[in-house]
Write a structure and sequence with these properties.
- There is one protein chain.
- By secondary structure, the protein is of the alpha/beta class.
- It has one domain: NAD(P)-binding Rossmann-like Domain (Rossmann fold), CATH 3.40.50.720.
- The protein is about 45% helix and about 15% strand.
- The protein has 12 helices and 8 strands.
- The chain has helices at about 20-30, 45-55, 70-85, 100-120, 145-155, 155-160, 165-170, 175-200, 215-220, 225-235, 245-255, 270-275, and strands spanning about 1-5, 15, 35-40, 60-65, 85-90, 125-135, 200-210, 265-270.
- Helix 1 crosses helix 11, helix 3 (about 70-85) packs parallel to helix 4 (about 100-120) and helix 5 (about 145-155) crosses helix 8.
Length: about 280
């Protein structure tokens, strides 16, 4: 762990996992007046984002974390709680099916998210809020049986990875595993919002569409890129999303204007899913 102190007296702690394009934009949006805790596996990326924030006066602590490791995430929660009241947790860390195996997608995007929700449920401050960055893929994957959806929502995290249905998914197509994991995020957030509510905190997810980040650009260049571009072109906005679009949605969900919003998913995709699911874009 390293800490660099900027100017001012922070009024609360904001935790952001993942320092990719969306994580960086969210950190800049939420940093003013707060103590930002940045977490990522990549120490170089942590140093870069921390330096950019501290250069303009923000207070930042960095922590190397592997979200697929429950102990690593629990340590992050302890570090954050020791710094002050945890008023926001934004989980952006994840892997892309373009760069990762199906097994890694399940370990990081599904189980890793559950680790974060578990670790911060006991420490988030009253009036605080959490946001999980999921994906529009969770709205577009193959249907999941109700019993399996319930298990994804409520199974103890140490049993989640061993659900029998995951055996075939882990050995299959990474894109399908990604859609499955992100749908799992939706229902996990829905269920865990009750535990967070017992602390007086709220919990929601955001499902970005195709976003102009390095990960998004890599996906556009991948095997399903042509279809993704067709979704963008046929959407209501007709453009790629930006990291700032997701940061703005996050700011709303963690702020007072969303005081009665919890346990739900906000689709921030420029209308792509709406156009696709009403047959205005050819599958």
């Amino acid at each position: 762990m390293s800490e660099v102190t900027g100017r001012g007296n922070p009024t609360g702690v904001v935790v952001i996992t993942g320092t990719g394009g969306m994580g960086r934009a969210i950190a800049h949006r939420l940093a003013p007046g707060r103590h930002v805790v940045l977490a990522d596996r990549d120490e170089g990326a942590l140093a870069d984002v921390s330096a950019a924030l501290t250069a303009i006066g923000h207070v930042v602590t960095t922590q190397r974390v592997d979200v697929s490791d429950g102990d690593s995430v629990a340590q992050l929660a302890r570090v954050a709680a020791d710094l002050g009241p945890v008023i926001a947790v934004v989980h952006t860390a994840g892997v892309s099916p373009v760069h990762a195996s199906a097994e890694a997608v399940i370990a990081v995007d599904l189980v890793g998210t559950a680790h974060v929700l578990d670790a911060f449920a006991p420490v988030v401050a009253r009036g605080g809020a959490g946001v999980v960055i999921a994906s529009m893929a969770g709205h577009l994957g193959p249907p999941i049986e109700p019993d399996l959806l319930l298990a994804l929502a409520t199974a103890p995290t140490d049993e989640l990875a061993s659900l029998p249905a995951l055996d075939a998914i882990r050995s299959g197509d990474p894109g399908l595993a990604y859609a499955f994991a992100k749908r799992g995020n939706h229902v996990r957030v829905r269920a865990m919002s009750v535990a967070w509510g017992e602390r007086g905190a709220r919990l929601n997810s955001i499902s970005p569409g195709v976003i102009a980040t390095p990960m998004g650009r890599a996906e556009l260049a991948g095997g399903s890129g042509a279809f993704m571009q067709a979704m963008v072109d046929g959407s209501g906005t007709g453009r790629l999303g930006t990291a700032d679009d997701i940061a703005a949605a996050t700011e709303f969900l963690v702020g007072p204007s969303a005081a009665f919003v919890t346990g739900t998913d906000l689709l921030v995709d420029g209308g792509a899913v709406g156009a696709l699911t009403t047959n205005q874009i050819a599958r």
